[in-house]
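Hi both,

Apologies for the delay on this - the queue was longer than expected. I finally got the flavin mononucleotide-bound model through. Below you'll find the protein sequence and the ligand SMILES exactly as submitted, and right after that the structure tokens for the full complex including the ligand.
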Amino acid sequence: MDYIKGLEFYQDSRETAVTLGKFDGLHRGHQKLVNRVKKLKNKHRVRSVVFAFDMLPLYEKLGLPREGIMSNEERKMRLHGTVDVFLECPFVESISSMTAEAFIKDVLVGILHAKYIVVGTDFRFGHGKRGDVHMLAEYAGAYGYELFVEEKEMYGDREISSTYIKEELRKGNMKAVNEMLGYPYTVNGTVEYGRQLGRRLGFPTINVQPAKEKLLPPNGVYIDCVEIDGIWYNGIGNVGVKPTVTDENRVLIESYLFDYDGNAYEKDVEIQIYEFRRPEQKFASVEEMKEHVNADIAYGKEYFRYKRRGE
Ligand SMILES: Cc1cc2nc3c(=O)[nH]c(=O)nc-3n(C[C@H](O)[C@H](O)[C@H](O)COP(=O)(O)O)c2cc1C
Ligand SMILES: Nc1ncnc2c1ncn2[C@@H]1O[C@H](COP(=O)(O)OP(=O)(O)O)[C@@H](O)[C@H]1O
């Protein structure tokens, strides 16, 4: 997969099947679009392209923190191996001020040589969000592309959306989050050095700081799985600031893995979060915390007696 950041760096004259959007989460609805593009590639021998807006510049301009289901880096990792090109387009003035008509003509047709365009029913684009599926359909004949509009995937009686997933993530409802994503909620990061207290208490933990633009579930203890050097380990971890042992306000994910005894420092790992167990607590003493963590560990081991990763 070619990763290209910035429209100006896309320089390929081959015809494409392209899907467009913000793609935060790459949830089941997004996957439908990506799969359509993959099928079009195989059928018509065109290049498959995911065009995703990078919304960070907009949040920076507005002075707001971005809270995404995934960081840009995680989005890139998750798309790896699915399409030929992942084009990430910073949402800057020159893009947001472009009319919808100009976006079709100059970007989709002019730069991307789109033969097939794949979007969801409510896709909006161009200045003032004036462009929609009707406009895309209107210009299809003139510009020689075919339009595919995919229906929304549902979760219960509500359409799956990044907004819906974020609502459930804020509540710690990992079952709904993971079902809507179509894969377990994932955090990628590098294992840091901590204060080496864990191993003295009998539960060493890998410590990972998530990307700052990442929305996390509420601080608390969660069943998780961690991939280190290509192998998955079951575990139980804490998302939060560990108030019992530090006054720092840095949110980390700390995970004790049941069948691991290697050295994971500085390794890039992937953490999947499965189920909320209890809120993070400030215990009166480290000893009291240790008792609770031991109970958490017993609970986690029991959880995985009947379930495998991903179930
Ligand atoms: C299953 C589990 C539950 C935890 N729960 C809490 C908690 O409720 N409150 C807290 O302050 N720290 C909690 N922690 C974090 C520990 O305080 C931390 O892992 C320990 O102090 C070791 O830190 P270190 O990696 O810096 O050595 C938990 C850790 C694990 C693995
Ligand atoms: N079962 C395990 N689960 C998590 N980390 C483990 C495990 N066994 C060994 N380790 C290693 O021990 C380190 C954690 O030990 P810990 O005493 O908590 O130190 P730190 O405070 O530096 O995180 C991890 O980063 C990892 O390299």
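Main takeaway for now: The longest strand covers residues 268-279.

I'll put the files on the shared drive as well.

H.
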